[in-house]
Design goal:
Layout: E1 62-63, E2 66-67, H1 69-79, H2 91-113, H3 130-149, H4 182-201, H5 205-208, H6 228-258
Helix pairs in contact: 2-4, 2-6, 3-4, 3-6
Length: 261
């Protein structure tokens, strides 16, 4: 166990580091950046929290005695009326949710297509570029639909892009240097979205309530049984959240293109 007292660690980088159970007392974390971190079970007392931006899955977060999780969920549903449709419970609900995503993504892609091609490879604030976002969604579909539900042990396209923190896995591509055109990525995207559509169109109450069969071999998700509904909810969540990220970043790119950002 390391102990740092009165130490100057400004600018330090901790990556794939286990800080479980660590204690921070009279520590200055101003300006710190946290990405893909697990803060489950964290207790904070006497903190000063101002001008903080938190994005992620938030449940059972109590601030000054108030569980703010439900408040956040309700406000997000108010801002985005279609968001509640991303929590379907029956086949008809999944078909409705997917139709909503197809409609929303069509508008987002049209918006992106009005930008210069090179801007679609630009990162905004360290996030994925628009092209990388589409590549990641292909990976999510291949993983949770192609592999988990349809049983293909290696469904990935060479352009698929896992999340950054995923360990290198034999057979799973992660080419961050690739620069495919929007048309090339959209062809892959249309194919994968068509696959999801076919699976959802074929859902019955029985199949939705069922489980997948384990798929052997390296890859993601890990070889075990998964509830079909959870697999499809994962895809809906990925599609919904990454479109919002893309819309946010497209606004910045549009400002750059016009010279106002």
């Amino acid at each position: 166990m390391a102990e740092f007292t009165a130490a100057d660690l400004r600018g330090s980088r901790f990556e794939h580091t286990d800080l479980t159970g660590s204690e921070f007392r009279a520590v200055d974390l101003s300006g710190a950046r946290f990405r893909a971190v697990d803060l489950s079970g964290v207790t904070m007392r006497g903190v000063e929290l101002a001008d903080v931006d938190i994005r992620g899955e938030i449940e059972h977060l109590t601030i000054n005695g108030v569980d703010v999780g439900p408040l956040i969920q309700a406000e997000l549903d108010r801002r985005h009326p279609d968001r509640a449709r991303m929590r379907p419970t029956d086949p008809a609900g999944f078909r409705e949710a997917w139709a909503v995503l197809e409609r929303l993504w069509a508008g987002t892609v049209e918006r992106a297509g009005r930008l210069r091609p090179e801007l679609l490879h630009e990162s905004v604030d360290g996030e994925w570029s628009f092209i990388e976002t589409l590549r990641h969604l292909a990976f999510a579909t291949d993983s949770w639909v192609g592999r988990a539900i349809l049983g293909d042990p290696a469904p990935w396209d060479p352009l698929d892009l896992p999340w950054d923190e995923m360990p290198d896995t034999p057979g799973v591509p992660r080419d961050r240097a690739a620069r495919p055109s929007l048309d090339v990525v959209l062809a892959l995207r249309r194919d994968r979205m068509s696959t999801v559509r076919q699976v959802i169109e074929g859902l019955t109450p029985e199949s939705l309530a069922g489980h997948t069969e384990p798929v052997e071999g390296a890859g993601w998700p890990r070889p075990r049984r998964y509830p079909v509904r959870e697999c499809l909810l994962t895809v809906l969540n990925e599609e919904w959240e990454h479109r919002l990220y893309a819309e946010r970043d497209l606004a910045v790119l549009e400002a750059r293109a016009s010279g106002s950002g």
